[in-house]
Structures are given as structure tokens and as C-alpha cells.
Amino acid sequence: MDTISRCDNPADDLLVGWKDIASYLKCSVRKAQRLERQELPINRIRGTKSVWASKSGIDRWLILQSEAAKRTVQRPSDTRTIPSGKNATVCRLVALALMLGLTIAAGAASAYGITIVLFGATVAVLVVSYPCLPDSVYTRAGVGLFLIAGMSYGTSAASLPNIVTSIINMKTLPPATAYPFVIGLPFIPIPVLIAVFWAALGNGHHAGFSNRPWLRAAYVLAGTTLIVCAAAAGLSLSEMHRIWQSGLPIRATLLLGEFFVLAINAVLFVFGYRFLNTRSIGTYRPLFSWCCIIYLLIGLTAAIVNRHSYDISIFHLDAKNPDTYRIRNMDVEHRFRGWLQQHSDQAGADLAALSTDSEFIDALKSKTFYKQPFDEPLQFTRKAVIFGYRIEYGPRSSRVFVLIRFPSGLAETLGFEPVRKL
Length: 422
Hints:
422 residues, alpha+beta, 3 domains, disordered N terminus
């Protein structure tokens, strides 16, 4: 029950007194007073015993009551007969569980394209099945976590198939399972924020920020912090400062892509604030529609940025990661072949073929290598590192750097060590 001034609402939207309120509800005064116990938005006028309400507030309350009534499952009088509505509910939940299981299995198997398609299909099934689930904080938290993981995965996994096929031994030692889920988070700070607050608002009976100002303050603080952190993470992960100093022509495109992602996140942040900053939230469809549109723009931009970043690793790895490495041990050929014989499960056919390639053996002995940071912090088993070296021949359109995913044990056996700067 609120106690605020009448001047906060237009005069034509006001209903003053129980009689006007009951007339608008088309019920008796006594029934209107009883409905106040069911969170009918009734306000008290300061210094008096009079009450008032707004037509728009009552309309929203009626909509919420109507939706709640639709979600109420009536128990059939004959328990031996299963109603068709219950059959539909069971089918939806089974389909949701099946799609969720397939999506998780595809993600664990590093089937990137299939996982993205299954994620979209699972979201579609989830939209249809959600009315069958209890609308609680825990349900929203689970759904929000799935959406965050899927959105992060989609922004990064689209470029991974090209990376896997172009780096030697990457098919045998694919990226860490958690890598695409983590690396895409800097692109979607505000969708993550909205998912978290959508879950947090689940225990407030559809109440918005106006009834819970502490959540409003938390939203503003968290959103601002996330945008700043995303900007810092995006620029650092892409080594933007080094690329910019190197004068590469592609630097402007990369920087523009980073700023565009931040800008549309900021737009979604403002829209989310205006949408949630209300007394009661009847439906989240407008907010989720905006999130879908923004995410499509983010996904497209992320694919372009990741593609250009990969091209820089192929053609300008020394500009992106200028620290150089040389192999300490001179008997690299013997060490290389000996390690492969003992650890054949970590070496694919492409890496094994290099053991008989005299040009590659000479490169190990004499070439300068550059390290490409990738998924090292997320590796728990079958650890690996990526090193690349420059090739001085080939057509202009071919790669300039050869990238190899060395198992960590092989890298230690060969003796990669950084070159001291003079």
C-alpha cells in the first residue's frame, strides 16, 4: 500500500474514493476493499482516510490476475482421465529436456555449428514450455544461466571451425570446452545483466524498480561496471593497443567493431532501465524482443571482429604478439620423434607428418617463434600451447605464419623459451 501525492498521475487517470474504484471494477465497494488484500494498487492520501487509484494501475493488475488464472491448472474431477492439457504439458517438458540434453552433448563434443543450431531450437521450445514451469526465482535463474551460456557461446563459436581447421594439431587437441562459453562474455555484458535481474525480480510478484529502489541502484551500478569491464576486456583480449601501434590497415575496423558492440549494449542498458523502472511489469515480451534484436547485431559484429582478429594472427602474428621464443635444445629432431612415439594420442596426423618434414625441423632449429595466447587458463586436461613461425615463400594470398598447437609436454621437451630483449 503506497502513500503518495495525487499529483503524480493525470487527472483523467485518477479514481478517487472506494465508490469510483468499485464502479471502475464493476463490483461492490466491499468487494473492492477485499481485493486490496490481493495487491490491488490502492493508494492513501496523506492526512486523510481517503483512497485513490489509477486506471492504468488497475488495468495492469487485472491483466496480471487474468494471466495468473490462465496458468492455474484445474484438477480434474475424474482422476482416472488425463486431460489433454496435461498431455501437452508433458510433451513440452519432454521436448525441452531432450533438446537441452542434445545441446549439452553437442557443446561437450565441440560440434560448434550444431550446438549453435540446437541452442536456437532449444530456446524456441523453451518459449513454448515456460508457461508449464513454476515462475520462481530458481526457474528464472536456471533459464537465465542457459541463455547467458548460449549467447556467449554463439558469439565466439561461429569463428572456431575456421580456427580448428587451419591450426596444425587443433583437431586432435580442440579448444577447452569452457572456452567458447567464456570468451564471448565481453560481447554481451548487458544481456547478462538483464538475465540476472529478470531472475532477481521473480520473487516480487511482478513488481518493478519503483517498488524496490535498491534493485534500481544495483542495476545502474552493475550495468555501468559491466560496460567498463567489457570495454577493457575487449580491448585487451584483442591486443588492440599493439595492433593500433603497428599501423595495420585493419585496426580501424577492429576498433569500430569494439565500439559498436559497446554502443548497442549501452542502448539495451538504457531501454532495460526504462522498462524495469515501473511499479508492475505485466509482460517481459518487449524487453526480450529488444534483447533478441540487440543480440543478433552483437553476434554479427562479433563474427566480423573475430574473423579479422584471426586474419591478424595468420598474417601479422609478430605485430599482435611481439614477444619472441626460440628452442633451447639443439637435438630437436630426436626429441620430437621420441616424444611422438610415446604420446601418439596427443598428436594428429598433421603434427606427426612434420616429424619427417626437413623444412619444419630446420625451422625448429633456426626460426623465431611467436606465442598465440588462446585457452590456456581454461585447460584442465590435455594441455597445449600455440606457437607460430614465419614462412618466407608462397603466394601472396597464402598464410605468412604457420600456427601449431603443441601439447604442453612436447613444448617442454623441445625447450621453448622467451628471447631476452636487449
